[in-house]
Amino acid sequence: MPRNIMKHAMLIDETICIGCHACVVACENIYEDSSFGTKRTRIEQHESRGYPYTISRFRKFMCMHCIENAPCIDICPTEAISYVEGEEGGMVVTDLEECVGCHGCIQVCPNEAPMMDDEKHVAIKCTFCAERVMAGHIPYCADACPVGAITFGNREELLEKGNARVSDLQRRGKSMAYLWGTRDTAVFYVIDIDPHIYRLPPEGYIEARKSFELPAGGAFAVAALGGAGLHRFWQRTQEVQRADKKGDLQKG
Amino acid sequence: MTSDQNSKTPKNLTRRSFLKASSAAVAAGAAGSFALAGCTPKEEPRTTAVEPLDSDVTQKFSFCGICSANCAMVAEIDDNGRAVQLKGNPDDQVAQGKLCVKGYAALKDLYDPDRLKYPMKRTNPEKGPGVDPGWTKISWEEAYKLTADEFNKARENHGPESIAFFSRGHPWMNRLREAIGTPNHIQHHSTCFTTYTAIWRACVGTGNRPFMLDVANSNYLLSFGWDMPSKAKNMSARDYVQALQKGAKSVVVDPKLTVTATLANEWVPIKPGTDLAFMLAMINVILDEDLYDHEFVNNYTQGIEELREAVKEYTPSWAEDKTDVPAGTIYRISREFATNKPALIPNHKRDAGGPNHVNSWRAAFTILILNSLVGSMDREGGQIIGRTPSFDVSFNSLFPAPDMPSMRTDRIDGFEKHPIIGPTRRGDFSTVTDAILTEKPYPLKAALVRKHNVLAFPDAVKSTEALKKLDFLAVIDIWPSEMVQMADVVFPESYFLETWGMGNRSYFAMYPQIALREPIIEPLHDTKGYGGIIEGIAQEMGLGHYFANVSGGRLRDEQLKSVGSSWEELTNSPNGLWSDEKPFTPRTSWPTDSGKIELYSNKLKEAGYDPLPYWQPKREMPSDDYPFYMIISRPGMHKMSQTQNNYLMLQEYPENFVIMNTDKAHDMGISHGQELYVESRAGKIKLKAHLTNGIRPDCVCVEHGFGHWSQKLSLAYQRGANEGDLIPRINIQEMLEIKDPGAGSAMNDFCVRVYKA
Asked: Which structural domains are found in chain B, ordered by start?
């Protein structure tokens, strides 16, 4: 049975993100998941081009809430991950009580959203603050952003807003400006350079069932000035590789 | 008053009833597939005792005490009396409904289990890194008595000047200092912005906050090292982004690709310490091509002809050699800056005009001149002289002091020898170390330190030695910092979220506004406020009569009455604010002798400084021994050396690195993450390499705030290293020879070598 597309969405304007991590801290202040460095959302900094033509961009990593066929839901052996049902639902949420820490969702997520909590052996990820949203509020990260780079609201309105922002950027000479992620997910990014540099697939969407390869190895992941983000990224990569070697993970 | 505190029913948010309804809806729709556990806090929350939404939430007003911008906050308290969330106050012109990353994380500071919980005394006479002070809990009375006895002993045996206060300005502390009779009040400002203060005092006639900006309404932003967006300063980041969204052009001149630069239209990687040359050439072009704002310059400034003469030689071609920026670029930027109004060179503390290099005061001067030439002084989209409310009532006028003892004028740090900046009593972090060690001009025997960390001093290792030399050190702090570990007696101060106060928006005030600070919770530990601790020491020293009838509450009330409000009105305000919102009226006179902005400064000349910003190179250049320029920066997730023990902030920025150019590092066989030594003529530190193409190949950058050696800071302990160990200190004589009217500590004016550990 086809589900209704979630009516909520999040628009992240990466062209004005200052990489301050206020969104991450506001989230972590409430959802005190996890071991040190394990977060529901995180900021990575990526750079491209050699000195002095260097460009650098931030990206807020989080669950993009695939609007249908989320691979993490499919692979989860304990049905710990599910869609919230109902008119106001559609968010992809995790029941940490049911999670057995199998790494399945981490392996199949094309967006590197879930992170393993090494202490509790559960995979945590963003839930779009489902409970809060259903009570009529917006997620903590969107509420916190000091520069207004994160907007949460009605999907149609945000598509309009995102497209308007993209037109505005293009008018000002940012010919690469693009609204990324409008096809398969509930998180849209306004970007102004090649999606590769943000570690976003160049197709402009994440094809939910296809695992996508990271562009050009770690070349773009060098910056991550926060340190922790990069560290987690390597750690996670190693975890997955280790698990792969042991053969105890299914491929998505 | 107290009953009024509890009668804020209109502000109290009761979400429980609302939530019950919505939860029921969730449950009905969930059909078993949705478990709420996924979006509620973990089973064993570290701070929140209850789910944040399923509770009665009470709101309390405060303003942030992490930095002096003082964003007004709304704290949410759950029905167990636990603070669960801090938000920005939407009616505050500074916060505008948001906080910065540090503000959002502040509850972790409040509930930090490592906080100082009661007064303590040291039992181990040995001091320094790696030494266990052997802390013993003592009563407040004993702490006061120990301190008072030691201070009285120093005063009697060595004179009152043998006692120093290391603290931000505070009327209680100042009263005690004067009652003791010591001129020695030392603050951190010589490492922060005294270069700007001096120039503004000389040329504008006011210099208290020479960094208030209307960035949001600017049409052309030209930054010389200004990078408040990457420091996450709430108002700066927001206003910068707003300006960009409105279509402002931003050009960033900086050796490092900062956050400001990544969002800008153009990054100009200039050679460190040469911003002055760039700006002198800009003045040259703007005057030569007659691009300056005649209306503004003719009416509101003086000295344009002397200036024209002074910059004649400083052409863009001349500057190209100095700055490593093509002359054509300097021409273009000069013209753009002069013709896109309102244009602004924003500034805030440690940018090109901050006390980084021995020529930085001249850069501060050229920034002032350029902002004046384009008519952006106290104009919308320009540099603002704050509409901060000024009170007719002060601590001293309301509580007049009995006769003060006479006081010698020569200070331990020689700060009085600087005629422009001396009267501000900001003090000098750089010169005080040598003065203590050499006992020149005289021996220092005892000190009281409040919330200043020895890690922040230039040549921190030597500064630690200097502190060891004191017979007695009392420290007032919130956390067991390195300074606390050096103390003989420790006074625990309350965290700002546990105290009363009011803030007059001194960092950003387009109109007069005052914010209320009420305790969001009762103090968690046996702590007191700064003023109370000072009074306690004074009583024991036999100086209690200097504080007769002194009352913080009454001071606040009288100050508020002087602007037409009252403490009662403020504490009952529905939004925790008093506002006198009125349209911005540009200033037409300046508080200088001439009533104009003095581009040629008689004040500087009379004081023996250059009256115009002639070219001067920075002090130290790369050499075979030390081939790299050193840059010091600060990550947005931390406030100086104060927040590294905060779980949330540490998680976002857990250690500092040696940031260096990728290609350069590869040439040297250095890879990302490799351990390196950074060594200057003052010291060396060990850190991991962080490679980026966003920095000049001849520079390395280290971020400040790390290298904590206090074992009592359980999270921050031994993370990263302190770049302060590398900064050469300056003695009083050297400082005078530099002839910087701001007596800045030249924090970045040295070079380093980098090699594999």
From this structure: 1-113+494-526+551-581 (3.30.200.210), 139-189+393-492+528-549 (3.40.50.740), 210-385+586-606 (3.40.228.10), 628-756 (2.40.40.20)
Task: Report CB contact under 8 Å: B694, A51.
Answer: yes
Q: Is the residue at A1 inside a domain?
A: no
Q: Please tell me the distance in Å from B270's CA to the nearest CA on chain A.
A: 11
Indicate the pTM of the whole model.
Answer: 0.90
Instruction: Determine, for residues A30 and B18 on separate chains, whether the beta-carbon distance falls below 8 Å.
Output: no
Amino acid B628: pLDDT: 98
CA distance B137 to B143: 10
How many residues does the structure list for chain B? Answer: 757
Which residues from chain A sit within 8 angstroms of residue B19, using beta carbons? 135
pLDDT band with cut points at 50, 70 and 90 for residue A147: very high
Q: Which of A57, A96, A172 sits opposite B247 (nearest CB)?
A: A172
Among A20, A26, A93, beta carbon nearest to B38:
A93
pLDDT of the residue at A202: 85
* Structural domain boundaries, residue A192: 8-246
Select the residue of B29, B269, B692 nearest A223 (Cβ to Cβ): B692
Kindly report, residue by residue over B82-99, the tens digit of the pLDDT.
999 999 999 999 999 999
Of A21, A34, A97, the CB nearest to B652: A21
Instruction: Find, among A95, A92, A97, A119, the residue nearest to A108 by Cα.
Output: A92
**Is the pLDDT reported for residue A213 higher than 80?**
no
Interatomic CA distance for residues B165 and A5, integer angstroms: 64
C-beta separation of B223 from B251 below 8 A:
yes
Is A127 close to B230, i.e. CB distance below 8 A? no
Mean pLDDT over the full length of chain B: 92
Q: What is the DSSP string of B199-212?
A: HHHHHTS--SSTTE
**Res. B283 pLDDT band, cuts 50 70 90:** very high
How far is the alpha carbon of A132 from chain B, nearest alpha carbon, in Å?
7
Q: Is residue A3 part of a domain?
A: no
| For B664, nearest residue in chain A (alpha carbons) | A51
Measured between alpha carbons, how far is B706 from A36 in angstroms, rounded to an integer?
A: 18
Q: For position B444, what pLDDT does the model report? A: 98
What CA–CA distances, in Å, run from A110 to A62, A214, B476, B546? 11, 9, 51, 69
Q: Provide the domain count of chain A.
A: 1
Q: What is the pLDDT of residue A250?
A: 33
Verify whether the Cβ–Cβ distance B652 to A83 is below 8 Å. Answer: no
**Mean pLDDT across the stretch B474-486?**
98
Six-digit token string for B480: 């067991």
